[in-house]
Write a structure and sequence with these properties.
Elements lengths: L5 H19 L3 H17 L11 H11 L3 E4 L4 H10 L7 E4 L4 H10 L8 E4 L2 E4 L3 H7 L5
Parallel strand pairs: 1-2
Antiparallel strand pairs: 1-3, 3-4
Helix pairs in contact: 1-2, 4-6
Length: 145
Amino acid sequence: MMRVWILPVLLVTCGAAVTAALVLTGSPGTAVAELPVFMALAVVNSPLIFPRSIDAQEAERRSAADGQPVVYWRPGCTYCMRLRIRLGRNAHRLHWVNIWQDPAAAATVRTANNGNETVPTIVIAGRTHTNPDPAWVREQLPSHT
């Protein structure tokens, strides 16, 4: 659980150090501009930007019931962030599984990707797709009923 927060905490710590150094060297204006950049990077790389993760077994059960895709992801993955951001409000319709929190999910991803933990790996209608185009994923979503 703590592993998902390493990068965001590191970004906040670096941001604080850079800000302090800039203030001490007499550049408070630059410091005020730099800190929000580090904070924004920390938020984007944190689990906060993604819908709440569930375990693989629960995601598969829910997907079988509602037909929505399962997305296997991990924090800090730029392709996962791209997918999440480009899906926009539709992202909450998918079932998100953090492979760093669920060893069974990581095993599923490795099986689908020749032993590699390549994410995002998406399961749509029982078929796996590795790092598909977000527009294509949006097209695959069942329409609201």
